[in-house]
Amino acid sequence: MKSGSNGCVYIVGAGPGDPGLMTARSLELVAAADVIYYDRLIPPTALEGARTDAELVYVGKRPGVVNVPQEEIIERMIESARRGLEVVRLKGGDPFLFGRGAEEAEAVREAGLDFEIVPGVTAGVAATAYAGIPVTHRQDSSAVAFVTGHQDPSKPDGAIDWEALAAFPGTLVFYMGVSRLAGNSSALIAGGRPADEPAAAIQQGTMPSQRVLVATLGTIAAEVERQQIKAPALIVVGAVAGRREELKWFENRPLHGRTVVVTRARAQASQLSHTLRSLGAAVVELPAIAIEPLIDSDEVSTAMLSISGYDFLCLSSPNAVELFFRALSRKGLDARALAGVTVAAVGPGTAEALKEYRIEADVVPERSVAEGLVEALEGTGMEGRKVLIARAEEAREILPEALAERGADVDVVSLYRTVRGTPDGRSLESASDAGWITFTSASTVQNLVSVMPEGLPSAARIISIGPVTSEAIRAAGLEVAREATRHDLDGLLEALLDDVKATTVS
């Protein structure tokens, strides 16, 4: 909490890499910050909640490469706080565990500024848990030591007492220990640690790319080199490493190790992305479209004020539902204005969106396309009935034309338009290794193709939400690997899982 005219410096742990392990406090501070100085190993989505006007400054370091010296990072944080800004120093893991957070906090205090420490989940307990390795176990280990593995054990003035460490009666967890693994292992064995004691290496712990190998203290250095385990990685030494086979769970999820591209608008992608990540996928969000509301128009205003005069209301998508009720609310109205109006939803996804507003759709076709709703209304007397179709500006004319042919008095109101999204270069690069690409509309296909001049990844399998989207995919010269039988997000996910299973078996 800042006092006076100065800002406050928040030294925040972002956790080991899985976005789900960021604390509520860390997310709250990211959302409120004026400036964020962030490290290399923060979760990939850690900055998504930042304000659009926040200054985001990368100050990360790679092994052997220092982009911004530590002294400069501290100077810039202090200068920002003195300008009255709320400063977040976002660090991977926990700032007080091999994170130099204490040094930064001491410098801020010496400058006469306020600071707050926000602990983060550290890799030593998180990556090991995701690897199925408990750092303590009633039968194996009642103590755990966290050790920097970066010091050279051959140096006589090193800070680590290797004989004492070898005699430690519990689990050893080495951070930053890959480059010196051979020397560290030899030093432990020389100090009396059994060469046949179980040991493990965990690369990219808690991330979809996580890799784990289990060996012995005497063989792990050679195995790490043979299997090309790279930093960032943890080394675990102790009997608990031998429990990995019976306790591993992370790699057992159905999409572990698969990279899936989500092309929905950024505001809508979170639900699908969250589900995919929970199933083990590495998710690349390429917002090929953005939703531009049109609810300030005169035609929308007129439709909302006269809604009770319609016999039928047809809503074309979850976007249409959300914007319809937003427009209704602007006129001081709510779901009660639909009393006596028959509500039709184009597909189960739209029907689910209506339930959030306490509306149960009267008509829901199995197919989430206009043709499906036309079929569902077959036999319903439409002669002289007044119908409002609320939809996207660029929607096809199949539904209004079909209802007009049956004698309905049809009004069409455009609640939004889809415009081309702008995926960032980093996401486009990440997508090049994708195994699967999901498309949820024809516009996502057209827009993504237009922003990827070199083409979509040739090896990627394309999953379509429905026939209209599939038609656009084929029109772009691409092949549909699988089309959802239910044309909503659950159906899309089911199609993806079926395709992953089928390709894995084959």
What does this structure look like?
- There is one protein chain.
- This protein is α/β, with parallel strands linked by helices.
- It has 4 domains: 8-121, Cobalt-precorrin-4 Transmethylase, domain 1 (3-Layer(aba) Sandwich), CATH 3.40.1010.10; 125-252, Tetrapyrrole methylase, C-terminal domain (Methyltransferase, Cobalt-precorrin-4 Transmethylase, Domain 2, 2-Layer Sandwich); 259-288 and 421-505, 3-Layer(aba) Sandwich (Rossmann fold); 292-419, 3-Layer(aba) Sandwich (Rossmann fold).
- It has 18 helices and 22 strands.
- A 5-stranded parallel β-sheet has the order 3-2-6-1-7, with helices on both faces. A 5-stranded mixed β-sheet has the order 8-9-12-10-11, with helices on both faces.
- α13 (370-376) packs parallel to α14 and α16 (442-451) runs parallel beside α17.
- The model has no long low-confidence stretch (mean pLDDT 90).
Global mean pLDDT: 90
* Estimated share of beta-strand residues: 15-25%
Structural class by secondary-structure content: alpha/beta
Q: What summary fits the major beta sheet?
A: 5 strands, parallel
Q: What is the terminal separation in angstroms?
A: 58 Å
Q: Tell me the domain tally.
A: 4
The CATH homologous superfamily name of the largest domain equals Tetrapyrrole methylase, C-terminal domain
User: Based on DSSP secondary structure assignment, what is the total number of beta strands?
Assistant: 22
Instruction: Determine and state the CATH class of the largest domain.
Output: Alpha Beta
Q: What is the rounded Rg?
A: 28 Å
Number of helices: 18
Query: What is the CATH architecture assignment of the largest domain?
Result: 2-Layer Sandwich
Spatial order of the strands forming the largest sheet? 3-2-6-1-7
Share of helix among residues?
25-40%
Low-confidence stretches: none
Q: Globular, elongated, flat, extended or rod-shaped: what is the shape?
A: elongated
- Examine the coordinates and then state which fold CATH places here, giving the name of the CATH topology of the largest domain: Methyltransferase, Cobalt-precorrin-4 Transmethylase, Domain 2
